[in-house]
TrEMBL record:
It holds the Pfam family DUF4097. This is DUF4097 domain-containing protein. Keywords: Signal. Residues 1-21 form the signal peptide. Residues 138-265 form the DUF4097 domain.
Length: 266
């Protein structure tokens, strides 16, 4: 990670740790200030679009430094990758998407060093559209920003983010989500698949489209509170900081852990 992003992430992490109740709001405001639509001119310029056949790869690896990443479900048998930036950003980017073996490898790096804090500002957005009738494994690593998985279908999705927010909405597949400083939201969750969510400092909210008929729950915080709002569960442990429970038997594990923050599962 570049030094200027380390500084930004450290500042955000400290702010979040000191504002537990508004942790998610702090993350969103910080991300939007630097990388959001209103952080620059609002005019996006495409750095290129690349297309790949869905039968060319089994997994997708995405590595970026600071931006918004959107993974969405497509309707054709092809995958597309597009990187866009705000027109006000003068620095150049290295954007590459290529097949390496059975992996679609996507990388975006900034070539130019920043001269001031204001140089960091401006929207950067990577959009990956998945092919229909395929379930690739996703591996996403981003230093700072936001990662959104929107109605996407995959075998598994592993997301690692240093600072910012992770949102998985209406997805199908196993989730493994980790953020050092920030928040994690699972919306319209699919209770048929395991979910692991970890935040060093930040909140975790998991909401199911339908309560899973069978599932195990492990929710743990060091400083903060855990809440499980699903009926008909058997509790092995039920405290403010730890909940271990089961609904039915033999279902997937729903696991959420944060060192500093709150956890809510509904």
């Amino acid at each position: 990670m570049k030094p200027y992003w380390k500084l930004s992430i450290t500042c955000i992490g400290l702010a979040m740790a000191l504002t537990l109740a508004g942790c998610g709001a702090v993350t969103e405001k910080s991300t939007n200030f630097i990388l959001g639509e209103s952080s620059g001119t609002g005019e996006l310029v495409s750095e290129g679009v690349q297309t790949f056949g869905g039968d060319e790869f089994d997994s997708i690896d995405i590595v970026t430094e600071a931006m918004e990443i959107v993974v969405q479900q497509g309707t054709s048998d092809e995958a597309t990758v597009e990187f866009m930036r705000d027109s006000s950003i003068g620095k150049t980017f290295a954007f590459d998407a290529s097949i390496q073996g059975d992996v679609l490898q996507v990388t975006v790096t900034e070539k130019d060093k920043l001269l001031s804090v204001n140089d960091e500002r401006g929207q950067r957005k990577l959009i990956v559209t998945l092919p229909a009738e395929r379930e690739p494994a996703l591996n996403i690593t981003n230093n700072f920003g936001k990662v959104s998985l929107e109605e996407a279908v995959f075998s598994s999705a592993s997301v690692q983010l240093d600072a910012g927010s992770i949102v998985a909405s209406g997805t199908t597949g196993e989730l493994d989500l980790k953020v050092d400083a920030g928040d994690i939201r699972v919306e319209k969750g699919n209770g048929s698949y395991p979910i692991t969510a970890y935040a060093e400092a930040g909140s975790i909210n998991i909401t199911f489209a339908e309560a899973p008929a069978q599932a195990s729950f492990e929710l743990m915080v060091e400083v903060g509170k855990v809440q499980l709002g699903i009926d008909d569960v058997n509790y092995d442990e039920n405290r403010n900081t730890v909940i271990k429970a089961e609904r039915g038997s033999g279902g997937p594990l729903i696991k959420a852990i944060t060192s500093v923050g709150n956890i809510r599962v509904n």
